[in-house]
Amino acid sequence: MPEKTTCPPRVDAPKVDDGYMFSRKADILKVIAHPIRIMVLEELARGVKCVSDLTEFLEISQPNISQHLSLLRNNKIIDYFMDGRLRCYFLKDPIIPDILEVMKKDYKDDLPAPECCPVTKKGKYPGGRSN
C-alpha cells in the first residue's frame, strides 16, 4: 500500500480558540455584501453622515436606507449619535476601512498556479496557462 502523504501543519496556523474571530469576520462579510451597504460604508469612511445625507447621495428612499443602516448597526459595524432630531452615523468596526481599501484595488490577473504539489513534488496543474 502506498504511503499516504499529508501536508505538514502550518507553523502560523490559526488556533481553535480563534474560531470566534473567524466567525465574526464571516458575519461582517455577509452583512456588508450588498451594493447599497458598501456605498454607505464608503461614505461613512469619509466621515459622519446623517440619514438625509445618505438618502440624497445614494438617491434611495429614507425607509430603504434606514433598513440598511439598521442591519449594519445591529451587527455592530456602525453606530450613531443624536444631534437634535438627526441621527448621525459613523463607522464602529475597525476592520471596515481595511476591507473597503482592499475592494478598491483592481486585480487584472489571476494568481500564478503551482508547478506541482509542494509536499510530493508531483502532479501538474491541469488548466491552461496564460504565460
**Class based on secondary structure composition and strand pairing:** alpha+beta
What's the alpha carbon Rg, rounded to whole Å?
Answer: 22 Å
Q: H/E element string?
A: HHEHHEEH
Query: What's the CATH H-level homologous superfamily of the domain at 18-104?
Result: Winged helix-like DNA-binding domain superfamily/Winged helix DNA-binding domain
Structure characterization notes:
The protein has helices at residues 19-32, 35-46, 51-58, 62-74, 96-104, and strands at 49-50, 78-83, 86-91. The chain is an alpha+beta fold and 131 residues long. The radius of gyration is 22 Å and the shape is elongated. It has a domain at 18-104: Winged helix-like DNA-binding domain superfamily/Winged helix DNA-binding domain (Arc Repressor Mutant, subunit A), CATH 1.10.10. It has a three-stranded antiparallel β-sheet with strand order 1-3-2. The mean pLDDT is 86. It starts with 18 loop residues before the first helix and ends in a 27-residue tail after the last helix. It has five helices and three strands, in the order H-H-E-H-H-E-E-H. Helix content is 43%, strand content 11%. The relative contact order is 0.13.
